[in-house]
Amino acid sequence: MVRRIYPCTYCGSVYANTLDHVIPHSYDHVHNKRTYSKDKVVPCCSECNTMLGNKLFDTISEKAAYLILKYNKKYKKLLSLPDWDEEELEEMEGRLKEKIVFNNRRKNNIKLKIDNCGLVRDVNPSINDIWEHL
Ligand SMILES: [Zn+2]
Fold first, then answer.
1. Centroid of ligand 1 to alpha carbon of 17 (angstroms)
2. How many angstroms separate the alpha carbon of residue 7 from the centre of ligand 1?
3. Could you give the maximum distance between any two Cα atoms of the chain, in Å?
4. What domain count does the chain have?
5. 26 C-alpha to center of ligand 1: Å?
């Protein structure tokens, strides 16, 4: 577990509650525990970490590119919903309006995550870059 609050390395989500092993984790047989040295892991939200699973990648950039595909696939339906402007929303009311506003927020949140993954893909930071900038 991450002890303080870090943003997710990939999607930029404010709360990275897990660590992603950029270099496959090693097992400390002497102390009988997994090692979590900062030169092997980066902060990661649980959603990105789950999507990355145990797949192996050579770079952080490749991981970010993979996540873009996964997020687009997982939220395909949400992302394909139409954009409503304020005027259109004002004409609506009740449960329908609530639902549209809620989905708009979710959609924008996912778009931000995908955009951030795009930046990470393009920059391809090293593990040291990540910790240095936190
Ligand atoms: Zn994330």
1. 9
2. 8
3. 67
4. 1
5. 23
